[in-house]
Design brief:
- This protein has helices at about 5-15, 25-35, 35-40, 45-65, 70-75, 85-90, 105-125, 130-150, 160-175, 180-210, 215-235, 245-265, 275-285, 295-310, 310-325, 330-340, 345-360, 365-375, 380-390, 400-415, 420-435, 435-440, 445-455.
- The longest helix is centred in the middle third of the chain and has 30 residues, at about 180-210.
- The protein is mainly α.
- It folds into 3 domains: about 5-265, Rhomboid-like fold (Up-down Bundle); about 285-360, no CATH class; about 370-458, no CATH class.
- Helix 9 (about 160-175) runs parallel beside helix 11.
């Protein structure tokens, strides 16, 4: 639950009236009043919360030792959720391990703060055994929802947010249909803030997913629904007693131990073919649609993965096959842009060629083709850049004219026509210097550096 307002819960605690004497009031009141992250971690009252945080930190340390906290191989080795490995290889430990894995320090800290806050509230109300059990069950439910409803060829999934959303769902459920007086207490103290946080989490997740599928919304939903169900099964956690809590905790610990053992013995198996597997998944994804952002993104992932295993020729062959089927010039244009940072000039040039074929009057397409042609045939690149200049309108955008002039200048430079090249490079720098986007991308520095080199060559 990455965007839970951390200050809001503390404000609730400070605004509360004096606690009543009932067991429920004392539990809820104490939980909210003690919502200070450092105090929770240091307090012996929160052994369940402390244990979950400790396990998560241990997994994060293992990620760093295994190759890096953002390294796909390390995350795969330690149990990142990949649906294909679960369903086709039977690696069911990947249903449990992802809730303890995180992609980078920001991901860890965001989930860590939310975990400490929500787990402490639940632990104060229901006890350590029940809190840990419910957390693990919601985490498993989140992973199952992700595996069932997400694209099986999509990105691997990691993070505690599904389990954390489960704790949020549990508290929301208690506030809506829990036993009295717990229901009234939670409605007054937390329900509004929780609902805002939950709504923001889903809204942000959907908004980001529309741009790039990097947030696992199905896991969030699966964990939240599991928490709501758990609240219905345990409507009065303060008064209800019995051995089920410690028995279920024992079963949960055994499940964690099994997952740890399976991860230790089977986790490395998938890393041996990781990049080939990811390339295959990207290729299958690229075959689903002829055009569109998803197709371009899938092809870029394909090139990246095959480049990592040194198979550039195969990457070029496969990309050219999909390019031939494209009908929307925006798709090869997007692909060329995505490939720009991957140092794959042959594949990038193929994308520009298809863009030119589909949009022969687009100056930007001719410019891209000219730029990628400079290393192999600078004189042809001059002619291609001439074509791009001829397609400009009478009053072109300065950034587009500047980009084409720079391409023309570099083509002339590599063709031996240094004086004209230098004059055009200077003009290009002046046109590009005032464009914020060029500066933000770091391209302006590279353009100016090439001008310095050309002046030194005189």
């Amino acid at each position: 639950m990455d965007d839970l307002p951390t200050s809001g819960l503390g404000m609730v605690g400070r605004a509360m009236a004096a606690p009543s004497t009932t067991a429920v009031d004392r539990a809820v009141d104490g939980a909210v009043r003690r919502l200070d992250t450092a105090r929770v971690l240091l307090s012996p009252r929160f052994t369940g919360t402390w244990s979950l945080v400790a396990i998560t930190v241990v997994f994060y340390a293992l990620e760093a030792l295994a190759g890096g906290t953002t390294d796909p191989a390390a995350l795969t080795r330690l149990g990142a959720l990949r649906t294909d490995l679960v369903l086709e290889q039977g690696e069911w430990f990947r249903i449990l391990c992802p809730m303890f894995l995180h992609y980078g320090i920001v991901h860890l800290l965001m989930n860590g703060v939310a975990l400490v806050q929500l787990a402490a509230i639940v632990e104060s109300i229901a006890g350590s055994a029940r809190m840990v059990t419910i957390y693990l069950v919601c985490g498993v439910a989140a992973a199952l929802a992700s595996a069932l409803f997400n694209d099986p060829l999509g990105n691997a999934s990691v993070g505690a947010s599904g389990a954390i959303m489960g704790l949020a769902g549990l508290l929301v459920g208690w506030a809506l249909y829990g036993a009295e007086p717990l229901r009234t207490q939670l409605r007054q103290l937390l329900l509004r803030r929780l609902m805002i946080a939950v709504t923001l989490t889903f809204a942000l997740g959907i908004a980001v997913w529309l741009v790039a599928p990097v947030i696992d919304n199905w896991a969030h939903l699966g964990g939240f629904v599991a928490g709501l169900v758990a609240a219905g099964a345990l409507r009065d956690p303060v008064r209800e007693a019995g051995s089920w809590a410690w028995g279920s905790l024992g079963a949960s610990v055994a499940m964690v131990a099994f997952a740890w053992g399976a991860m230790s013995t089977q986790g490395a198996r998938a890393t041996a073919t990781l990049h080939d597997d990811l390339a295959t998944a990207a290729w299958r994804s690229a075959l689903r649609e002829t055009d569109g952002l998803n197709t371009a993104s899938a092809l870029a992932r394909l090139v990246m993965e095959l480049q990592l295993v040194g198979d550039r020729k195969r990457a070029l062959t496969l990309v050219e096959q999909r390019l031939a089927a494209m009908r929307d010039p925006a798709t090869p244009a997007t692909l060329a842009t995505l490939l720009h940072s991957l140092d794959t000039p042959a594949v990038e040039q193929a994308a520009y060629r298809r863009w030119v074929e589909l949009a022969p009057d687009d100056a930007a397409a001719w410019n891209g083709l000219a730029w990628t042609t400079i290393p192999t045939d600078p004189q042809r690149a001059v002619r291609l850049a001439d074509r791009a200049l001829s397609l400009l309108p009478p009053q072109p955008e300065p950034v587009l004219r500047g980009a084409i002039l720079e391409t023309h200048a570099q083509a002339l430079r590599h063709s031996g026509e240094r004086e004209q090249a230098l004059a055009e490079q200077r003009e290009a720098v002046e046109l590009l210097r005032d464009d914020w986007w060029i500066w933000a991308l770091g391209e302006l520095e590279a353009v100016e550096q090439r001008l310095v080199e050309m002046e030194a060559e005189r």
